Amino acid sequence: MEKTWRWFGKNDKITLSMLRQIGVEGIVTALHDVPNGEIWTVEKITELRDYIASFGLRWSVVESLPVCESIKYGGKDRDRLIENYKVSLANLGKCGIHTICYNFMPVLDWARTDLANPNPNGTSSLYFNMAEFAYFDCCILKREHAEDDYTPEIMAQVKEKAGKMTPQDDDRMVENIIIKTQGFVNGNIKEGDLNPVRIFRDLLALYKGIDKTQLRENMKYFLKEIMPVCNEYDMRMCVHPDDPPMQILGLPRIVCNEEDIRWFLDAVPDVHNGLTFCAGSLSAGAHNDVVDLARKFKDRTHFVHLRSTCVFPDGSFKEASHFGGRANIIELIRIFEQENPALPMRVDHAPMMLGDEDKGYNAGYSFHGRMMALGQVEGMMAVVDRELGIERSYPVTVG
């Protein structure tokens, strides 16, 4: 697979020259300065593409060309926003960029309660604690009937936490769940916003009356509208699974399991309608057999995120080593290398280590941790390539 890396543009503390030195081949990025819903122009796409190329790298995948909330919930302006989306897709195709990772998750792009949960070896990892998330939902957000969504055991922990949490603890929870994991991704809420909880409640209210069936139909409507452009410019749309792959905050989630994936692929049976196979998101659901899903959907997978998680009995989960957890990454590499050795792959979330925590990196996107993960995955790829008889060149550093 092509070794790619998510890079957040020219202001990213991790530079393209650093990425070239560690063996990255392709860049996964976006026009982060363009507001959601506005057109990506050929001029802006070309400028960033050529800047990346000047470092000997290529812009391999767009992550993301955001799907506005109004498209997801079916607002009055969705057709105008879809037309803008189609123009942006065509402009990307004209510039030679053909793979688009996006998501159809309402409001929250991904959720974690702890962004630096300590590991025994001194590193730290992302963590989703179900009881802490329930506390945020019931006691900070105060969503109506939220307690009905959790088990009695979880609610007992929520009541215990309610007597111990300080205002500072509540602020940290808000930062972790709706600011630090969201602002750099989808722009709904960003650092410095006043009263982010109120903004978040307003966003949730947009989905009042939208159930899973309706959200599915809205996704189908969006995909059918853009498919002619995708066919004309060979644009590979690959939706990211829901993270975590379960219903949260009363919101419908429609890319959580095998049935969900099969539904949206069959709803628009076009090869350009595909999947981002995020092994981490899928492995965070105990209901998912990740390797089995890879075998079943490898032919409609256009992009791969390789990471893994450990899942606990109450539904909590933690990011795991790329050698461990539920995902079985080496078997996934076997499946996808055999299907398409040119498939773009990024290692995705990794531990913070060796000073990563002091650098101000975006949550989940450390440098040293991802560099270690990339080395681990590259080693697994080398073993699999030898098994399959795939020849791959590696950069010469001396000689």
Specify Rg, calculated over alpha carbons: 20 Å
* Measured distance between first and last alpha carbons: 26 Å
- Estimated structural class: alpha/beta
Order of helices and strands: EHEHEHHEEEHHHHHEHEHHEEEHEH
Q: Roughly what fraction of the amino acids lie in strands? A: 5-15%
Query: What would the principal axes of the Cα set say about the shape?
Result: globular
Account of the protein in words:
The strands form two sheets. Strands 1-2-3-4-7-8-9-12 form an eight-stranded parallel β-barrel. Helix 5 packs across helix 7. The protein is globular and about 60 Å long. It contains 14 helices and twelve strands. The model has no long low-confidence stretch (mean pLDDT 93). Helix content is 41%, strand content 14%. The longest helix is centred in the middle third of the chain and has 22 residues. Strand 10 and strand 11 form a beta hairpin. It starts with a strand and ends in an 11-residue tail after the last helix. It has 399 residues and is α/β, with parallel strands linked by helices.
Short note summarizing the structure:
The chain is of the alpha/beta class and 399 residues long. 41% of the residues lie in helices and 14% in strands.
